[in-house]
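Box 3.1 — From sequence to structure: CNGB3 protein
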Amino acid sequence: SSAQKPAPSGFQTNEYADGQLQEIIRKMRARTTVYKEKLKDPVLSSPEGSPTASPKKKPPPPPKEEKKEEKKEDAEAKPEEDHYCDMLCCKFKKPPLKKYLEYLQLPDNIDSYTDRRYVAWLMLVTVAYNWNCWFIPLRFVFPYQTPSNTIYWFTIDLICDICYLCDLLIFQPRVQFLKGGDIITDRVEMKKFYHSSMKFRLDVLSVLPFEVLYFFFGFNPAFRANRMLKHNTFFEFNDRLEAILDKAYIYRVIRTTGYLLFILHINACLYYWASDYEGLGSTRWVYDGKGNMYLRCYYWAVRTLITIGGLPEPQTLFEIVFQLLNFFLGVFVFSSLIGQMRDVIGAATAGQNYYRSCMDNTVSYMNTYSIPKVVQNRVRTWYEYTWDSQGMLDESELLEQMPTKMQLAIAIDVNFAIVNKVDLFKGCDTQMIYDMLLRLKSIVYLPGDFVCKKGEIGREMYIIKQGEVQVLGGPDGTKVLVTLRAGSVFGEISLLAAGGGNRRTANVVAHGFANLFILDKKTLNEILVHYPDSEKLLMKKAKVLLKEKGKPPPGPPVQQPRGLASLFGQKQETPKLFKAMFGGRGREGLARLLQLKREQDVQEKSNQTKILTQNKDKINFTKTLNNSTCRTENKPEQEEKKPVEPEASSAPPAQKEEPNADAKPKPPAVMRRGTTNESLIISMSPSPRAEEGEILKVEVKEKKQK
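Predicted structure (token representation):
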């Protein structure tokens, strides 16, 4: 028996089972609360997913079908395993050849505005076109093409001709086109449209094989001059490339510079041709045949077209006419190119010029009215940060030019992810959120700016797009209570308060530069007119938010009961008035209440007995007065006053005893003991707030003297 362990003195429970029971009870209580709210307001959805409607129960599929599906899955998985190859004791994954072929395969129709492969092909054709434009005049005039290098020139010319033919036969007949607002993608219709266009005629002329004349007149590059007729492809490539570039103005500047260089190149070729016609070195005006022939002629062309001057005077009539035409064309062409360059650069810097003009006008206005320098510096800072962060002063001006659908598409891509995180709008109609995205206003706050101040009437809600804000509180209003970052929301209660009259409870200051979205109450009400279900849901959430805001701050955590005690609800706290009246809690307060009731009963009985004895004394005293014969007629008033004295002096003795009792040292209890003329009234009344139930009232009133 000594080896046996002593039995446990108390009741023991399994901690795991106890935890599981508490979790089940908690979930059941939460579920009960949710269904109660569901019965009160059917707008709120149930937390459980609704089952899908199934009119009839289908029998389970036969095992044969399952086997077929498994075989299909295995067949799909096998090709992935076949794409591995072993090499040098290593296993490499080899992409399937079909994927390459699918990617390289030409589509049946080509969208010239969005297909990047088509733009790449146009670039290849443009390179071939520039080769012909630059080198055909060069080879025709300058003696750079010789029998020793003819094969190389011929090979490059053949490659360029292949590009021309592929574009004519393969790519251009597949390009989509618009007809009456419809996009035509039919292969036959696209081919007919291309064959009926002027572009097709020029493309055909550009590939005519005039090179067959080489056999009769020799290898002369002049027979390839028709290759320069494919200029439509060159301009189409410029348009498509500018549409996809982020900074298209850079390409425009390069292209304009290329135009100028090409015109100078043509002029240099013409000058060499004129010199060869007059005879190299025959006069001071022509090229003397020394040095690099192309660079010397190009230098002469630059000085002529730009009208720099300092050139030898022409001697013959041909030279004079040639020089006059050069000067005339130089002034016209060069001025046109300079004007075009100015337009390109001006369009590229139009936004920045507008920003500078706005800033200069604002600074001039502030100087006119003697605005303090501190305010002026903050205004300049706002202009600089706004321009650096978004590249424009007002984003809405850019979006106003677009249709509403495009504005919505851009707003969804930019702001939907932020607004969708707001708990207030979860469960609302998606279209309502889309309408709200178009109404959001973006505002930039500088470091230290007050977004809202304590005591202000709140009529809008704020969503942080970028940056941080700090909520300040404390006695002096400088203590940082919380820091809100991008995606956070504050001020949402102001949208839901009746009349928008909810006052701000704290100061909110921008910590650094902050970009916020603002939604005011008027705008939200205009949107909710078209979405009544979302309005009901928001009103329900508004009640919950306002209740949580009105609750007192949470006290210390209450220790959860263990064991079977968790099956019963927690005991409600003793009312505050009850505590204040009796200065105790629980059984101690109840005992004092019962003691007070007994003392009140004893006091009422003693008062009744005193009243009876006083009435008897009055009766006896009146009898003695009537039997008295020694009274004179002048004394009735005095004698009548005598019986009144006991009535006035009947109550004072009890009142005189109380001060003597009060003069003694009082006990530490809240209530004094003894008899009193006060009565205790206890009543229960409904609370003005629905969530607080009933209120216990305890009143003490003084009795009226009879």
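Summary of the box: The two ends are 81 Å apart (CA to CA).
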